[in-house]
Amino acid sequence: MVKKKTENLSTYLSEIAIYGIQEKKGNEIVRLDLREVNSSVSDFFIVCNADSSTQVKAIANSVEDEMYKQTKTNPVHKEGLENAEWVILDYFDIVVHIFKTEKRDFFGLEDLWGDAEAISFKSA
What we know:
CATH class: Alpha Beta
Strand order of the largest sheet: 3-4-5-2-1-6
């Protein structure tokens, strides 16, 4: 359970998403802070990877469940659940990217946003 802090809303939302990822043992969790990056599309990208399509779906469902339980919001857009190799959950201020491990390496999302501050989080 993530307790609401007095920090800004997007930071709080990112913490909820990270908790949802940790609940399903997501690997290599990174939060990219895009607030100081020109032409960024959101405040944070949260990136993680999973060993299987089943785990990708489980993580996506966990993030959605936690976000709904704590904020009563659903993603404004989600994509990739059919193949579950790269799932995107878009909550405007934060975007959650859940990759199968080999897809994360291939796309190198963190490299594309190299100007962003990256903070790593432990898997639960």
